[in-house]
Hints:
globular; alpha/beta
Amino acid sequence: xxxxxxxxxxxxxxAFAPPSSSSVVYRQSTVQEVPSVHGKSNxxxxxxxxxxxxxxxxxxxGPDPIWSSGAVESNIQACPSGSCxxxxxNVADGTEFMYPGQYVQVKPSGDTxxxxxxxxxASAPSGTPPKPTPPxxxxxxxxxxxxxxGPEPATPEPATWEFLIKKTDNNDWLTNIQPGQxxxxxxxxxxxxPIQDNLEGFKYDFPTQNVLLFASGSGIAPIRSAIExxxxxxxxxxxxxxxxxxxxxxxxxxxxxxxxxxxxxxxLGVQVVPVISQPDLPCESGAVxxxxxxYVQNALEEDGVPIPRNSGALLCGVKGMCESVKSTLLExxxxxxxxxxxx
Length: 343
């Protein structure tokens, strides 16, 4: 694995450098009209109340968006092929983003004609989730009343969110955006991966001791958020935490973002298994693939599912991969409730 990471980093070095004529490099965008639930400017002032200045746009998925302003801190190429970009946005309030897998809508500032992009946040959550009630502990009357009234609004705290965006024919307004420009950003949407509800405690009588992660293409974005969130309670082998394996599939080595993070993830306890579906396609970087080939679901079938009754899984990517992986996990004996999606 270390040799594969080193080879990818070496071949990608020049491709990751932004062109000298522009401060923008290209990043991957997720699907725009259907959620693929799959920054910082020192000259801009943010106003949380500015959300009230925008007319909500109904998209038929989740609540109506409430728009506020976000400033582009950076836009860089995320993989050697240039098929995706990594975008950083500075927002006035990051407290709503509490769970890996949550997403926002993004559109050009003040524009009501372009359909918003639905983007899963790739960075670790910037807000703090409420503490769950310990199993078997009865809530006090005051706690029950507080819960019924809903949580008190958190004090707004600025945050920088990262996104992984696949380039498409109709999202160049976003993939070509310059640092310092602004966009409209919705409130945080979705509940993310229901990790606490399904991987913690003894809901399924067997404790979760192993976590499997599956991603294809830009679906790695919310999976990265989960890895770096510390909510999975994983740890390096032999240190007492959960074991974890990530299966991540792309077409070619040049289409793989976050290669530079693989070593960091492995230090956290994640065994990274990159899978290339078209290893014979020539790479501009000159990379020659010597690792796993085929599709993520093929790699899972080859490896099998260790301790399925004590395992959980997070999935994000193309429909075919997710359906095939879920079927294999169920056949192995994994509880269906521990096979988690972020939508």
